[in-house]
Amino acid sequence: MTGREVGNAASAPNVRREHEPLPLEELEWPGRAGLRLGWTLADTRVPARTARQAAEMLAAIRSLRAVVLRQVHSDRICLIDSQRGPGVALDPVGDGMITDRTDLLIGVSAADCAPLFLFADAWTAILHAGWRGVVQGILPHALELLQLRTGLGIEQMRLAIGPCIGPCCFEVSPAVASLFPASVRRLHGQRRTVDIPGAVIDQWLRCGGGMASLMRLDRCTVCSRPLMHSHRRDPGPGRNLAYLYHTPG
Ligand SMILES: [Zn+2]
User: Fold this and answer.
1) Angle CA(99)–CA(205)–CA(125) in degrees, nearest 5?
2) How far is ligand 1, taken at its centre, from the CA of residue 170, in Å?
3) CA gap 108, 106 in Å, rounded
4) Predicted model pTM
5) Distance 165 CA to ligand 1 centre (A)
6) Is residue 78 within 8 Å of 127, Cβ to Cβ?
7) 113 C-alpha to ligand 1 centroid (Å)
8) Of 96, 122, 124, 188, which has the fewest beta carbons less than 10 angstroms from its beta carbon?
9) 129 and 113 in contact (C-beta within 8 Å)?
């Protein structure tokens, strides 16, 4: 399935909207029964709910434990390996998590950065990729780790790009724009923008990932009021929680 085929998440037939206990969108990963990914508003103002609190609520009703990263805009990736026993840090520091555990709901918070979801055989990963993370290569690093763990080639892995700021709205300085390939830079009159999902896709293809195993949810956080929070649009404490978990059976 290509990003083009998926189109806008709101119109995709496999998107499920739930209203208890949080407004959220979830979808089952096409071709991978039992693996769900989703995102929800985690606004800390009305009602008071951090990304961690939202993740814990979602995990509790599914009898899972929530692990949410303490993010530092880095390319640091935490490994949560089932062979190390049942104990787990619930707030590891870093911007990516890789795990083979199925008893966890793993999440990242993002205001305009891209949440990235990966799976390779029994392993899954979730990454927080802002422009710094993309430039630092958090996706290629995660793919390398997954290769080491699974022995699989990248052509056997799948990537989904969640809602983030789009090329319509991600205005940057010339210095930031120069860090990205020309193919993902845009000029709209005097405005200079960068296509973060496009840059992620570029890295994915360069690493050997296939277009057929890529899913891009074309939803710009700035343009998606009120469903998504955007820091660019509304500076403040709001966030979106992006998460991934396994369903039983
Ligand atoms: Zn936009």
Assistant:
1) 10
2) 7
3) 7
4) 0.88
5) 6
6) no
7) 13
8) 188
9) yes
Domains and CATH numbers, the chain: 3-246 (3.60.140.10)
Cα dihedral sign, 226-227-232-237: positive
Strand partners, 25: 17, 39
Per DSSP, the residues of 191-235 read EEEE-HHHHHHHHHHHTT--GGGEEE---BTTTSTTTS--TTTS-
Token pair listed for 66 = 């929530």
Ligand 1 geometric centre to CA of 166 (Å): 5
Measured in angstroms, how far is the CA atom of residue 46 from the centroid of ligand 1?
23
Which helix or strand (DSSP H or E) is residue 51 part of?
helix 51-60
- Measured in Å, residue 114 CA sits from the centre of ligand 1 at 13
Distance 216 CA to ligand 1 centre (A): 15
